[in-house]
């Protein structure tokens, strides 16, 4: 049990048999034995010192520096020169791609260890307009081999089995694993990985001050990488992953950093408020719509003028739905069919809370028209190349007037807008974030007893089940139940 002591001194363990040494933590206690045993050691050491030992920032920085030097030494000349590092809590190289030729990776598959698929592919960036994008990709040569064709499929289609954001997260947590393996001289232990290796690196990460969620994210990244390259993952049996996470959870607890939902009274307050400034007005309306329509920040950022379907309910031929609209959400996270969802905004009883009217006013004021050449209705899954974003960035024009541009907000900006609006409505900004809007809409609907299947059709919340793909609910009253739950 030399690990903790050595780490505490700020010196990275440099022994060539580092992995084996760490493995001495051992299997004796069965699957969840090692982390428990390890944490007990930490607890003992801490209690021995009298006070809960929290690593100081200086200690952590020193530790990081030592790990980085260790990586440099392992890589040797010339590979160890000019390394670039991520800013995360765990030491992680950001230049792994150019290390493929380093002796540390000799004889190993660079693709399985170092391939970064996190950048959205050409076809993904086309956002539904994939035929056009496909034309931009070179045709296979007449004498292309099966390998060439498979490589093209791997480059352009295969990454899309996982969302780009998930891929980005997985890569961000895989990079520290590879970096760790370089430092420990254990690159040949990575793919496929034995469960002991996973435990070993988890222990190191724990000693570096990684949080529970970081370690779990590393485990997910390792699992997912194994599956995508056709290897058996280190955590194999069904249900075993939760046993692993439980081992950490019992020791480290789970921090309660839950963000609060935006509830009905905030929505009402925002609807009654009419700020002068364009950006503030945009943030306010965006927050209301994101909440009622249960939108994720990325979905709000993608909305275009032609996604507001004022005729969605009136067009069903049932009278009484004037002044309503549908918000077309082309693509949602678990919408593997790219079919879209159309949450509805109904007509408020209180004219001061008329969200559809306010949306119309906003679109008129910002000149957000559905333009000629709009492709939305013909190809709803594809991004419309002609219409402007519904909520766009603003700039200060000559004379100090703030005007909207045609550049869409980023998801991050939408999140900030939601937090600012919650604050303007009198809430503690620290307890709110972008997720507060969707959370508010879903919890309001669930509390009002909206059926799961209706909620799914509107929001994509809940498991995707085959039957739902074929469901066509044609009763506007049912489809507006989520809106009704807000009692506006
Ligand atoms: Zn359009």
What does this molecule look like?
The chain is mainly α and 488 residues long. It has two domains: 37-121 and 157-252, no CATH class; 264-369 and 379-484, hpI Integrase, Chain A (Orthogonal Bundle), CATH 1.10.443.10. Helix content is 46%, strand content 4%. α4 (57-75) crosses α9 (164-184). The longest helix is centred in the middle third of the chain and has 21 residues, at 164-184. The protein starts with a helix and ends with a helix. Mean pLDDT is 80; it is low at 1-52. Bound molecules: zinc ion (ZN). Zinc ion binds next to loops. Zinc ion (ZN) binds next to loops.
Describe what is shown at a glance.
By secondary structure, the chain is mainly alpha-helical.
Task: Please describe the topology of this protein.
Blueprint: H1 3-8, H2 18-23, H3 33-48, H4 57-75, H5 110-114, H6 122-125, H7 130-136, H8 146-156, H9 164-184, H10 195-207, H11 212-228, H12 240-252, H13 264-272, H14 278-292, H15 297-302, E1 308-309, E2 325-327, E3 344-345, H16 355-365, E4 392-396, E5 402-408, H17 411-424, H18 435-447, H19 452-459, H20 466-469, H21 476-479, H22 481-484
Antiparallel strand pairs: 1-2, 2-3, 4-5
The chain binds zinc ion.
What are its keywords?
46% helix, mainly alpha, hpI Integrase, Chain A, globular, disordered N terminus, 4% strand, binds zinc ion
Q: Rounded to an integer, what's the Rg over CA atoms?
A: 26 Å
Question: How many DSSP H or I helices?
Answer: 22
CATH topology of the largest domain: hpI Integrase, Chain A
Helix and strand succession?
HHHHHHHHHHHHHHHEEEHEEHHHHHH
Portion in helices: 40-55%
- Cross-sheet strand order for the largest sheet: 1-2-3
State the name of the first-level CATH class of the largest domain.
Answer: Mainly Alpha
Q: What is the overall pLDDT average?
A: 80
What is the tally of beta strands? Answer: 5
The poorly predicted ranges are 1-52
Q: In percent terms, what proportion of residues is strand?
A: under 5%
The major pleated sheet works out as: 3 strands, antiparallel
Distance between the termini: 63 Å
């Amino acid at each position: 049990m030399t690990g903790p002591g050595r780490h505490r001194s700020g010196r990275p363990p440099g022994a060539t048999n580092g992995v084996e040494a760490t493995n001495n933590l051992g299997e004796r206690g069965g699957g969840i034995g090692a982390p428990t045993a390890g944490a007990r050691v930490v607890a003992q050491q801490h209690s021995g010192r009298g006070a809960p030992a929290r690593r100081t920032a200086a200690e952590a920085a020193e530790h990081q520096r030592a790990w980085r030097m260790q990586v440099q030494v392992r890589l040797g000349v010339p590979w160890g020169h000019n390394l670039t590092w991520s800013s995360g809590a765990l030491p992680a190289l950001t230049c792994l791609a150019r290390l493929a030729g380093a002796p540390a990776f000799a004889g190993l598959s660079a693709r399985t260890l170092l391939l970064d698929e996190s950048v959205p592919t050409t076809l993904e960036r086309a956002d539904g307009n994939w035929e056009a994008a496909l034309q931009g990709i070179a045709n296979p040569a007449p004498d292309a081999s099966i390998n060439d064709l498979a490589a093209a499929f791997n480059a352009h289609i295969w990454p899309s089995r996982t969302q780009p954001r998930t891929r980005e997260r997985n890569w961000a947590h895989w990079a520290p694993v590879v970096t760790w393996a370089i430092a420990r001289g254990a690159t040949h232990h990575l793919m496929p990985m034995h469960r002991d290796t996973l435990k070993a690196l988890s222990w190191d990460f724990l000693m570096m001050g990684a949080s529970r969620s970081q370690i779990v994210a590393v485990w997910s990244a390792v699992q997912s990488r194994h599956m995508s390259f056709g290897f058996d993952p280190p955590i194999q049996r069904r249900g075993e992953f939760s046993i692993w996470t439980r081992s950490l959870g019992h020791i480290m607890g789970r921090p309660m950093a839950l963000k609060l939902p935006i509830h009905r009274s905030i929505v009402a307050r925002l609807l009654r408020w009419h700020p002068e400034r364009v950006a503030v007005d945009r943030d306010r309306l965006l927050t209301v719509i994101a909440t009622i329509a249960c939108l994720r920040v990325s979905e709000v950022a993608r909305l275009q003028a032609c996604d507001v379907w004022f005729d969605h309910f009136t067009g069903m031929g049932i009278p009484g739905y004037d002044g309503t609209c549908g918000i077309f959400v082309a693509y949602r996270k678990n919408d593997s069919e790219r079919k879209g969802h159309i949450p509805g905004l109904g007509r408020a009883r209180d004219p001061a809370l008329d969200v559809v009217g306010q949306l119309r006013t906003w679109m008129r004021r910002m000149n957000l028209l559905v333009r000629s050449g709009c492709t939305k209705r013909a190809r709803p899954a594809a991004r419309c190349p002609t219409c402007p974003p519904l909520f766009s960035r603003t700039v200060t024009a000559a004379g100090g007037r703030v005007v909207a541009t045609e550049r869409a907000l980023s998801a991050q900006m939408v999140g900030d807008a939601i937090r600012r609006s919650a604050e303007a409505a009198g809430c503690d900004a620290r307890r709110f974030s972008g997720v507060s809007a969707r959370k508010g809409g879903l919890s309001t609907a669930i509390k009002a007893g909206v059926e799961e299947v209706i909620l799914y059709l509107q929001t994509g919340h809940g498991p995707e089940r085959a039957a739902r793909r074929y469901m066509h609910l044609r009763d506007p009253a049912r489809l507006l139940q989520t809106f009704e739950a807000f009692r506006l």
